[in-house]
Amino acid sequence: MPVLLLFLFSVSLSIGTALIVLIVRQARQRRPFRFKAKSSNPPASCPYESNCLFRRPGCWLAVKSRSLLAVQSALGVRNAKPCSWSHGVLGEEKLFIAPPVKGWILVMGSGLPDPSDDVDKAFRFIVDLSRRLGQVQFFSANRVVQHHAWIWADSGRVLRAYAWGGHTLWCQGKATVAESELKLTTFEYHEIPERPVFGEPDVLAINTEKVPLLASRWSLDPARVDESWLQEASGIAGESSRRY
User: Fold this and answer.
1) What is d(CA 226, CA 82) in angstroms, rounded to the nearest whole number?
2) Phi–psi pair at 238, nearest 5 degrees
3) Is there a contact between 94 and 111 (Cβ–Cβ < 8 Å)?
């Protein structure tokens, strides 16, 4: 009798084990297959890194030069440190001086003067920098309030300047060919533009949107710098010791 009971127990255990195995196999077959791609590269800090690299600053300088040190000296940069383009273009530094591209050096950062805040300070800054470096251009475009500016100076002389900050702050020199081709609209001092009728284009918004196009005609648009160059280049970050 004990042997028979042991035999029956073994059979029951085998059958139970077989049933469990069968249930597990069926469950695996019903589970959807998920492919996990293997990657030898770690995930990027930004999910769309190429887009992050092309963020355009709200304002920037374009200096006709190939010398980072010359621009650094003219700006009076202190606490200088190496800085990559991908970080410098975010605008977190007071000043970021990018390496030269096609004979131009771009400068951006919160340390640049805004004509909408103080047009006299912007004038002194650009004229002084132009005396030191030669050809200097300044661009600004604020899409929220439609403030915008484009300025071109050479050897301490302003060749062309226009700045709008709720009204015309600065208008000097004749409109360039590029401005005419882009159909940019400028206003004289104290001239008030008419409010656009519903459905008609807003000339102030159009001006703001076209600032980068003008920059690409005059010198460089930061958003159109070659991506392959950005991955390896580094510039200089710091803050200016000069007061204007």
Assistant:
1) 20
2) 175, -155
3) yes
